[in-house]
Amino acid sequence: MANKFLGSVMATFDKLSSRPIVKKVVYALAVFFLVSFILIPPVLGITFKLGLAEQVFSNPELVNRSESAIFWSFAIAFSVATLDLIAGLPIAWIIAEGRSRWINIIDALADIPFVIPTVALGFSTLLFWGNSGPVSLLGVIVPPGLLLVLLLHFAFSFPVIVRVMVGELMAHNTIYETAAKTLGARAFTIARTITLPLLRPGLIAAFLLAFARSLSETGATVIVAGLFENGPVFIKNAKDAGLEGPMVLVSFTLIISSVAVFALIRLLGNRLKIPLNRAYPGPEAGLSSKRSVNFRNSVTLLVFGLFVVLPSIYITFPAFGALSDGTLQKAISGAGVWSSFWQAMTLSYVIAVLVTLINIATGLPIAILIARKRLGRLATTLLDALVNVPIVVPSVALGVSLGLFWRTLNFLPEFWILVFAHMTITYTYFVQAMAAAIEGIPEEMEETARTLGSRPLHVFRKIILPLAKYSFLSGAILVFTRSVDETGAATAVSQTMKTAPVLLVSWVKHQVPVTDSDIALGIAFLVLTSFASLLVLRLIVYRGKK
Amino acid sequence: MPLIRAEGIRKEYGKVTALNGVNLTIKDGEYLSIVGPSGCGKTTLIKSIAGVVKPDAGDILIDGNIVTPIPIEDRGVGYVFQEIALFPHMNVYDNVSYGLMVRGVPPLDRSGPVEEMLHMMNLEAYVSLYPKELSGGARQKTAISRALTSGSTLLLLDEPLGALDLKVRTILRYELRRLVKDLGLTAIHVTHDQEEALSVSDRIVVMRAGQIVEAGPPMQLYLRPEKIFTAKFLGEANFMTGEVTETRNGDIMVNVDGSRLIAHTGINVSLEEGEKTVLAIRPEFVDLSTKPGGVNTWTCEIISASFVGDTMRYDVRAENSANLLVKAPITGHESSFMAGDKVFMTLPDENLLVYRLPEEGLEKALSLE
Amino acid sequence: MPSLRLLNVTKRFGALKALDDVTFEVKDREYLCVLGSTGSGKTTLLRSIAGILRPDEGDIVLDGERVNSVSAEERNAVYVPQTYALFPHMTVLDNVMFGPLAKETDRRIAEEVAIRVLRLVRLDKRGDAYPHELSGGMQQRVALARGLASGAKLLLLDEPLGALDVRLRLELRTELRKLAKESGFTVIHVTHDQEEAMTIGDRILVLRKGKLQQLGTPYHVYNRPEKIFVASFVGSTTFLEAIVESRSKEGSKLRLREGLKVRVIDSSFEPEEAVIVSVREENISITPEPRGDEHNRLSGDVTEVHFLGSFIRYVVKLTNGDEIAARVPIKMVKTEINQGDWVSISFDPMNTHVYEYPTLGLQGELEVS
Q1: pTM of this prediction?
Q2: Which residues, listed in sequence order, are joined to residue B240 by a DSSP beta bridge?
Q3: 20 to 30 A Cα–Cα from A175, which one of A125, A395, B207, B312?
């Protein structure tokens, strides 16, 4: 009985979806939402208070600090992305080739900095390289500052490169390499002249992603920066000091310059000519030999282990320590600082759920528009670029601008401003995942289904969704975990309400009376819950790969 | 000295046996085609010769040297892939000169041989175009040029014309043979199109289920195939099972479901009275006429008639209920028959192929797997 | 009442006209074959009829109703692409039921219809299988069944046999036609294989660069090709450049290169006009010695001999440099003719066609795309 009712409801909606006007309205609403809720607030908001930036120019010290912060943001991002590309590519290669027994282990380890919320990464890095960490036993200590920031960024941008490149390598059709072999080329020559040029779009995408992540990250960087300042750190410091002017100026500059730099790298990257004119069979054969390959692999694995894996998992030690010294009971009982901790966790997860649902509902039509190029070539490229803006712009700057926008309009309570901030940051992930999945479904299949009498909504329900369900779920989970993890925008926007990562950063900076065990345990809880959701993601994706 | 030899090649993929002990010798300068249904192992065989696939057992010898352990890049064999596999990020010129480039030949020294090859293949107009801008035929020619520019004398072609339209295929296949012969190369051409194989090869190898069924010059395999499968796979054939009623000096009289046929057994098959035999005849050798003929003439009824341009295809039911396919050229002198016509059908004894009834039964022996 | 009518349909992609002023009718229950090579516009034609593409100009009329602005799901014309587009996540039965269920048919009735259709294509036992578990031939039949079960009366097949082995193609050809006729469907079947088109089409529509070249029965298109392109694309034809020397009621005398003369039956061109004369390869007879009683006797050297199984094709370079090709059915080959032999060729004026000399030259006219 209920089934029949549901059936006829669906049938009515299906019929509606055939009418051109209905389709146009749905897409128009989605685009309207994208523009007015995702794009305009972060772009326009900053202009409301642009006048405040003037404050800064009268203070030479602030001007210096601002310029230096912006410079260092880009310098670090660029260096880290380059280093990660060089170090990550061989690891991606090892994983994609899949020949060694250790593959699964390396694969899982490479994901760790991605799995762990950046707050935890920051704290773990701080301890690892600090004066009570294991490296201090060798006489090496890296105190909070520029170098520690570099080490941190290197570690957390690493999995981005590896993930993207493994995906590219596995999707890559190796027939070109085989063809090159029949023409007498050796492994190194083939990699240089065939594989890398063909993977260029992937390399650029990976570089840009790592770049964006470094530029944007706030929470962990604040933890390890000490007195050093890059963009996000400066903005947070300015906020804590109540200096709105510098906040606005640096945010504004970061927004404009990050978009410009991205566009530049995208355009130039594709034009970059890789010299393919000559080969040197002698030396290149040497580089292709088993010995060279093994050497290269060992070095990369060493770097990977020492600079990425160990610093990331170090947090487990103090966390375990916290289990046995009574902190656990304190935490569970919600005593003292822990009551605000659980409040913050609840807030983070409620926001995450809302954000995921809203992003799915509003992002789906956009994903379809992009994947099926419904608006024509030029408009689709523009739409695609617009959708990518939130990840290009550093989240803290985005948060500042967005906060200013809604506060000036003054009808949204803080909770909703927080929701919108998290929504903006994560919007891109779902759209990208769904668009890629839909693009992978041959359009012919939809067309054939339609000629069989199936209306657009029916095609979506019965064909697209089932075939894209793994991407759908992984996109949703990505949004969810990214939302929980977010520190930058949350820091910029929050006034009275603190999300879990923001709260934990204040704990690490001892802005609240907490013990080291409290910090370790709090972070451990955050890690565990993130880990659980990403585990679910992995299981779903792996089942889908079959 | 034979240029290539495959000895006892065996290759398995899990439970599937792709090659089951294949032995093949290819002479220097020969244009050899390998045909067979999908899954027969022809692509696996050619890949083993190239080194793309490593056989589980057996050896490949080139000019007397065992090359089985030698990796692809050192075998010096030109290979044209079914998927063509032109490097998408390089234009025609760079694709074709790649083989020379990786050998360390500087750009100036490469231009001579490359330009000569492009001229020979009529690709000069496409020099700076990229693969996605080329037509199917041009892509194919570029792939062949690329394989040849490295100077190898052995060319392996894996369904080289498979992706092309029928008309383009028929033109290009002759060009391919002409090129191979002009350059004095040895070529192994894998195809599932048996007309293609018949028209360009010096010798054809017929494969099935991982083994070589028969090998020989096209005319021989077509007109006097030794194995039943060859008779079926190359061209079309009618098969009839019957019982030998009389034998006399190499001639046999066969009873096919009540009708009689006289046939000649070749040197390879000797049958005795009472034995079961399979007779085969190609549809183009069956004569239809309104006038009664002599030996081996049966009455029959035309079940269906199709016009196919220069021939008529008739489905015919003979007096003994056998169904046969007949292809008759349209000459203009006589008019064609129509469905329902009752005519005389002659199966000339010189065109009847005689086989012993296979143990596994006719149907199994003819199946494509 | 004609089932489908196209009136002056034009479809552009940028500057390219994929369909150029196409007008034709398809009768109810007709099996129409659209013949053309890649790039001829045949896929665009099907997709426009199906409603996936909208024409830029002209009208598409289905069963008397102009459907230009009717959405694909409401047109009742099923499109089956070359890749079949079977839904990989659904079983065979679910795939076939998809059409009826999309049109809100009761589930039980949909299942009955589906099973009935699957029985027609002999796949009723594989209802629970998934597409990837089936062979190419079986997938093709599922795609067909899905179309048949949908309730539409117009079936649009895009190279339905293109992905299959040569053998399977021959077998499934006639089955396809039989199925369509038995179910009372109107079919538009696109192919680049002219033999396929001639065997199963009630009529053939030849398409080239988006323009309709000729529409007629196979006999008509084969024996009275109205354009040079049709004469070359359908069947195998030799073309010679000539100038009209004289004409009369019974025919004309043409002058080839270096003064060689031929007679043709056509008399529509005036003296001194430049023309192209075409003869089908099977209508050219070839003998080592001239017999003296033939029309249009010319001589030359045999440059190539191709064995094609049921016939042999000879390429002859005439004394004036022109090239002709003759095909002789294998059973009519009386004396052996080899490469390099001097031969005499002849053809009946009745078997010639004459065309106006094309503005783009002969090669331009023969280009497929």
Answers
A1: 0.86
A2: B279
A3: B207
